[in-house]
């Protein structure tokens, strides 16, 4: 019910922020938006999911602060207020977290061009590691097959959500973290030395095999296909900072 109630309550916000984009609005066409910018006036767009939203402002820092105060005034009659802990005005170069992603303006490696990139935020990575730790404690007596089934369910869902970010290195790191957690758990449970680990987890050629139990194989995060979005031109350029072009 929470997302539904948020959509109903925040419809007043949508109407206010989207009003300039309606036909005959002051930002309804590209030429009108260019004219506003030429006069030093800001333009903006809102991205909202339930009660989480971001307003991207093409203008100065003062314009962003003024828009935040305007939004607070729009929400007040509906009995809503902006969370002081979760609401801030950020430069795109500093980046911000939204729906588990870290969105940040960075220079493309090897060039002088700047783009907005989407990364996985720190919080969901830490939360996933905490779940893995809880399920692979060295003293755990849980069944390995059932543990692998549950881990696979978590990993498939998590990676399907975040696979559209810049996350190849993050997935590789998490796969290594997961592998070592299970190996150390097995070493403690079976009192294996490293030679025993290699005997059980390598084939006759000495290559490492995937960790498995009774036909259930551990999901490999490194094999998740990463599909990043390709078009970034519609994301506004942030206000100028010293040294920024």
Tell me about this structure.
This protein is an alpha+beta fold and 245 residues long. It is built from 8 helices and 7 strands. A hairpin with a 6-residue loop joins strand 4 and strand 5. Helix 5 packs parallel to helix 7. The mean pLDDT is 90.
Write a concise synopsis of the structure shown.
The chain is an alpha+beta fold and 245 residues long. It is built from 8 helices and 7 strands, in the order H-H-H-E-E-H-E-E-E-H-H-H-H-E-E. The radius of gyration is 24 Å and the shape is elongated.
Relative strand content: 5-15%
- In quaternary terms, these chains amount to single chain
Query: Which structural category do the helix and sheet elements fall into?
Result: alpha+beta
Strand count, sense and closure of the main sheet? 3 strands, antiparallel
- Report mean pLDDT, rounded to a whole number: 90
Which of globular, elongated, flat, extended, rod-shaped describes the shape? elongated
Portion of residues in helices?
40-55%
